């Protein structure tokens, strides 16, 4: 993505909270106490500008999923500043945070969390139904997204008859159907073959290259690095480096 596509001419290492969809400073996360204390995050600083697709890379156990869970508002940091879309997540009450996530954040985590009694189209439509859409309109919109993900012939199937890769695509459709301003994906292509992984990342990347949105993708799949505007490398609970994507 060209620098002129960014909403601010400032260099990315000097972004203000107004320029960044995600602004994280000094974030730590500890689990347990005493001898069982685990420091998952050790003072993370990270900015994700609007209009960017950032890939978060690093070995298993380095804190990637913990970090994106905090950014998505599903996990509380032990300390630090977390600003998302200009809002202070740390200062939010639980009720306000739930409402904020529902309206602004889409997330795809490694567990699909599909509802077993709903069809693929109904599962993908859940965010729209929660937002008050009429059922037929919500299912129609979700079906269009699923068709783009190669599941046009699986709309009426229950999760129990879908493969793992198909279930993952339904979870992705559910995450993007309401056009969230921040999309957080944890290994979105891990169960997909090369072609379906490419199709999925192309659709996800279309969300990022808009001036009021951003996407964070956690992945070990180097095949999708070409979709990144930048790649942030994590090691032992810290961001060790941030580099431009291949393009």
What would your notes on this structure say?
With 247 residues, the protein is α/β, with parallel strands linked by helices. The chain has one domain: Rossmann fold. The chain has helices at 64-71, 94-104, 120-130, 135-148, 164-176, 194-208; strands at 20-31, 38-49, 53-57, 79-84, 87-88, 105-108, 182-186, 214-218, 230-235, 238-244. The strands form 2 sheets. It has a 6-stranded mixed beta sheet with strand order 6-7-8-3-9-10, with helices on both faces. The protein has a 4-stranded antiparallel beta sheet with strand order 2-1-4-5, with helices on one face. A hairpin with a 6-residue loop joins strand 1 (20-31) and strand 2 (38-49). Helix 3 packs across helix 4 and helix 3 (120-130) packs parallel to helix 5. Mean pLDDT is 88; it is low at 1-14.
Structure at a glance:
The chain is an alpha/beta fold. 29% of the residues lie in helices and 26% in strands.
Give the topology.
Elements: E1 20-31, E2 38-49, E3 53-57, H1 64-71, E4 79-84, E5 87-88, H2 94-104, E6 105-108, H3 120-130, H4 135-148, H5 164-176, E7 182-186, H6 194-208, E8 214-218, E9 230-235, E10 238-244
Parallel strand pairs: 3-8, 3-9, 6-7, 7-8
Antiparallel strand pairs: 1-2, 1-4, 4-5, 9-10
Helix pairs in contact: 3-4, 3-5
Largest β sheet strand count, sense and barrel closure? 6 strands, mixed
Distance between the termini: 7 Å
How many individual helices?
6
Low-confidence stretches at least 5 residues in length (pLDDT < 50)? 1-14
CATH homologous superfamily descriptor: P-loop containing nucleotide triphosphate hydrolases
Give the amount of beta strand, in percent.
25-35%
The CATH architecture category equals 3-Layer(aba) Sandwich
So what's the CATH class? Alpha Beta
How many domains would you count in the coordinates?
1
Shape: globular
- Say what the CATH topology is: Rossmann fold
Structural class computed from helices and strand pairing: alpha/beta
SSE run: EEEHEEHEHHHEHEEE
**Average residue pLDDT:** 88
Radius of gyration: 18 Å
Strand order of the largest sheet: 6-7-8-3-9-10
């Amino acid at each position: 993505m060209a620098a002129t596509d960014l909403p601010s001419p400032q260099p990315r290492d000097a972004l203000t909270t107004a320029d960044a969809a995600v602004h994280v400073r000094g974030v730590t996360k500890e689990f347990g106490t005493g001898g069982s204390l685990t420091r998952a995050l050790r003072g993370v600083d990270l900015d994700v500008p609007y209009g960017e697709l950032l890939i978060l890379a690093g070995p298993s156990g380095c804190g990637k999923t913990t970090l994106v869970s905090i950014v998505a508002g599903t996990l509380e940091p032990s300390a630090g500043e977390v600003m998302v879309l200009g809002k202070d997540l740390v200062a939010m009450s639980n009720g306000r945070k739930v409402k904020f996530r529902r309206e602004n954040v889409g997330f795809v985590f490694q567990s699909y969390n599909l509802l077993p009694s709903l069809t693929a189209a109904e599962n993908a439509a859940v965010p729209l139904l929660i937002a008050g859409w009429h059922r037929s309109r919500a299912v129609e919109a979700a079906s269009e997204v699923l068709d783009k993900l190669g599941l046009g012939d699986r709309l009426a199937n229950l999760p129990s008859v879908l493969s793992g890769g198909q279930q993952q695509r339904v979870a992705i459709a559910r995450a993007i159907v309401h056009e969230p301003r921040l999309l957080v994906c944890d290994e979105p292509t891990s169960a997909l073959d090369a072609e379906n992984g490419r199709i999925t990342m192309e659709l996800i990347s279309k969300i990022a290259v808009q001036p009021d949105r951003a996407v964070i993708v956690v992945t070990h799949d180097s095949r999708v690095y070409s979709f990144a505007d930048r790649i942030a490398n994590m090691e032992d609970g810290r961001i060790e480096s941030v580099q431009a994507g291949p393009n």
